[in-house]
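RECORD TYPE: protein structure
NAME: Aldouronate transport system permease protein
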Amino acid sequence: MLKAASASQTNHSPLLRRKQGFSYYLQRDWQLYLLVMLPLAFVIVFKYLPMTGLVIAFKDYKIARGFWGSEWAGLQVFQDLFAKPDFIRAVRNTLLLNVLDLCFSFTMPIVLALLLNEIKSVRFKRINQTVLYLPHFLSWVIIGAIAYQLLSEGGGVVNNLIELMGGTRIPFLQQDTNWLISYLVIGVWQSMGWGTIIYLAAMSGINPEMYEAATVDGAGRWRKVWNITLPSIRATIVTLLIMALGKVMDGSFERIYALQNKATTEFTTTIPVLVYRWGIESGNFSRATAIGLFQSVIGIILVISADRVAKKLGEDGIL
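PREDICTED:
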C-alpha cells in the first residue's frame, strides 16, 4: 500500500508532469481541447484568414484580375500614400483626437469609479451606475441626433436656454474649435459610465480591513483613496492604459461621421475616414489597405513599447 502511495505521489510529482508530452494532456483533457476548437476556428477564419487581403497594399489591385492576378507594385502604393496631403492631415487629426480622448475619456472613468466607491447608499449607487451606463448602449447615429438637437446653433435646446438668459448663441457644432471640444465632451459622456465597471470590480477586491486600519490610524477619505484604493487598482489602470495606447492611431469612424458637418472640416479627416473615402467611395482599395496596414503596424509598436515600459516600471504588462 505504501508502495502504491509512493508510486502515485511519484506520478504526480512536478518533475514527471514536465516530461509528459502534448498527447498525454490531449488524451487526459480532450473535452477541454474540443471546447477550445470552436472559438479558435472562429478567430482563424474571421480574423487571420482575411489578413491575406493585405497583399493588395503591395499591388496595383484590379477587381477584375483579383488578388493574385493584379500586378505587383512593391512599395509604390506606400510612397504615393505618404506624399498625399490628406494623409499627413489624417495622421495629425487622428493623433490629436485620440490623445485628447485618451487624456479625458481614460481618466474620467477612474475619477467616476472613485466617487461611486465612496457612496455608502447601495440603492443610490446602483441608480447612478445604471444611469451612467445607458449612453454606452446607444449607437453613434442616435447620439449624433441627440447632439444636434441639443447643441445646434439654430434651434438647439442649449442655445435656446442661453438666449433666454440673455446670452449669445454658441456654434457648438458649427465651428472647428467648438466642434473639437463638443466631440471630446460627448465622447466622455458616452464612455465614462461603461469604463467604470472594470475599476469598480477591481475596487471590490480590496480588503476592507485595510480601510479599517487606516481609519484607526486617523486617515481621512482622501488619504485612503491615495494610499489604498489607487495603489490597489494600479495594475488594472496600467493594463487598460496599454490597451488604450494601441488605439491612438485608430479612431471611431461612426463617431466622426455622426458628428461631422460641412461647416467643420478641420479635424474630421482621420485615418478611418480616409480608409472609407479611398476604399468605398473612390474604389482605390490598394491605397485604403496600405493606410490601414500602416495604422495597424503603428498600433502594434505602441502596444509593445508601452508593455515594455510598464514591465520596466515593475508592472506585469499584457504580453
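COMMENT: The mean pLDDT is 85.
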